[in-house]
Amino acid sequence: MPGPPTGLPTFANGDSESPTVWQRLSQTFLRPPSPARHPSAEPEHVDVSRMTDDEKRARIVAVDPTERKVGFAAAILGVALALYANVPPMTTKTVVPWTTSPPKGTTCALGLTYAAKTKTCNGIYPPSHYVLPLIVSLVLALAIYITVLIRRRAPLAFTMVMTGLAFGSLFVLLPYGFAGGWVMLRAWRTQKNGSPTARTPLTGWTAPPPRGSTRRAKASAPRSGQRGKGADSTGASRKPPVANKRYTPKSPPKKKATPPKG
Question: Is residue 257 part of a domain?
Fold first, then answer.
């Protein structure tokens, strides 16, 4: 017999006609989902045993895709916070209370007005007062973006912490400081275990030595053709010097001077 028409689904009861509403809903919502694997739940399939020391160092200091996303988000948030904290006070008159009482009665210094309710002199910051904080905040946000582009973990963590400090607010410093510490923690885990998410060292992973130690070891090693200590021109080791057997008499002890008689 000919098979069912092309394009029509075939169900378990052999029905090949157009599905009803209930059949469509059952196919959509009652079908068991295929097992999806989360990328972070699987071990990292990287043969770290064949990596050179330079490749291991690059793996430790380089920013991974997760840290790239966090860095870009921190840069965008830094720009938004810089504009929000500095642009509105430039366009609106923000009253700032003076910390001291007026010097004489209700008379304030030039440019300040007396507030009878608080008994203080109130002033208004000029727009130029907010220019420097705006520039510093935008430069630090740009620095976060640049460190993400150059893919370096240590500069990224440093610029995040400095951005949090630049705003002078604990609510901004805490998330930026936490993000910077999180990046450095991942760098430490990569150096110790070979992966920022690994709890134990990967198979074949050994931390690379410091970059300058290899050069110092090569410089301290004796070069080929160079004579070592205790070797003559023929390459044979020289005998140590023999003690002199000539007898040398001991010098007599010095006589003590007798004090003069009084």
Answer: no
Tokens for 251, please give them.
């010098």
Q: Which domain holds residue 146?
A: 60-91+127-193
Mean pLDDT, residues 130-136 taken together: 92
Alpha-carbon dihedral sign for residues 62, 67, 172, 185: negative
Smallest Cα–Cα separation from 141: which of 71, 226, 238, 58? Answer: 71
Cβ-Cβ contacts under 8 Å for 8 (sequence gap 6 or more): 16, 17, 18
On whether residue 200 sits in a domain, the answer given is no
- pLDDT at position 30 over 50: no
Residue 225 lies in a domain: no
pLDDT band (50, 70, 90) for residue 206: confident
- Give the mean pLDDT of 216-239: 57
Total structural domains in the chain? 1
Query: pLDDT tens, 73-114?
Result: 999 999 999 999 999 888 877 666 555 666 667 777 776 777
Residue 84 placed within a domain? yes
Contact 120, 107 (CB under 8 A): no
